[in-house]
Amino acid sequence: MTLRVALCGLLLAAVAAADRHLVEAIVVRVNDRVLTIRDMRRRMVERAAETGRPVQPSEYERFVGETADELCLLERAAELKLDVTKEEVDEAVAQLKEDNHLADDAAFRAMLTTTGITEKQLRDRLHDTLLVRRVLAHEVGTLAITEEEVRQRYEREKASFVIPARVHLQHIVLSLAADRHDEAAKRARLERLAAAVRAGNDFLTLVEREVAAGDAVGGDLGELFVSDLRSEVAKAIEGLAPGQLAGPFESPAGLHLVLLVARLEPSFKPFEEVAQEVRERELNERHFHKLAGVVADLKTRYIVEVHPEYLTAP
Q1: Cβ contacts of residue 23 below 8 Å, gap of 6+?
Q2: How far is it, in rounded angstroms, from Cα 79 to Cα 82?
């Protein structure tokens, strides 16, 4: 063997060893719990399945940090001798199936295939999620929130409970032939209907008659957000007062005639309607701050290493 061949062999062996080290490098360590690059890539696939989008490179550091926090809580669960039973995991799987409207095992297996995870991986993640919740319940306990505190938060965040401007509309639409040969006749028909309404006839009654004739669609649209209206409709009713008509005007759907029944200005959802949501926001925030303190304390007692720089896309 020549010296050159021997050197090449040594170099290739060193590169292969380095590659093996990189593939199996530890990204997160908490005491004896370790997650390698391969483990973290699997978790990234699971996170993408949960959120519907891949973890972005700009999110790697936070993702690794959250994973380290989870391992700290799992280590704390071991200290406290907490556990989750198979029956509890079974219940979590059943709830997941119900939440995702999976009618049978075939649909469940299809979902697993689509998301790229195995049933064992799913059950392991559910087990850990339940265990983390159990640790939180032990460490954080019950957080009391008074109604006055909920009301104060509602007032601070009232802008997030705005109900946008709405309109109550009734309408009729006559479709047009591809060659538009019927446009003039149908426009005249809507104009006659508009004249009848202005003369005192009930718009909705006249619309129901036209619909019954079989070549029109229409009726009471109820309350709609102005921001959700077709641009042609929004422009046509702009400036109208309740009780006034817009049209006939055209959209890709055909010729329209619209009655503005009422305008509803922007308002706020009442406290009673959103009190539970506000309470949950406050509770989640307090849990988060309490949890941050718990994890920070655990990190002073545990050996914790994180290496987000090793992480690459799966």
Answers
A1: 36, 37, 38
A2: 8
Chain centroid to Cα 172, Å, comes to: 35
Q: Say how far apart CA 112 and CA 125 lie, in whole Å.
A: 13
Pairing of strands 162-163, 33-36: unpaired
The one-character DSSP state at 59 is G
Sign of dihedral through CA atoms 154, 158, 160, 164? positive
**Neighbouring-strand partners of residue 34:** 29
Q: Taking a C-beta distance cutoff of 8 angstroms, is the pair 252, 231 a contact?
A: no
Contact assessment for residue 118 and residue 59, using Cβ atoms and an 8 Å cutoff: no
Give the whole-angstrom CA distance, residue 149 versus residue 155: 10
Joined tokens for residue 136: 């939180």
* Closest residue by Cα to residue 259 from 228, 231, 218: 218
Whole-angstrom distance between the N-terminal and C-terminal Cα of the chain? Answer: 40
Shortest CA distance to 152 belongs to which of 285, 282, 284, 287? 282
Give the separation between CA 68 and CA 34, rounded to whole angstroms.
10
pLDDT band at 308 (very low <50, low <70, confident <90, very high): very high
**pTM (whole model) above 0.70:** no
Going along the chain from its start, the domains and CATH numbers come out as 21-143+279-310 (1.10.4030.10), 165-265 (3.10.50.40)
Q: What is the pLDDT of residues 130-186, one digit of tens each?
A: 998 898 888 877 778 889 999 999 999 999 999 999 999 999 999 888 899 989 999
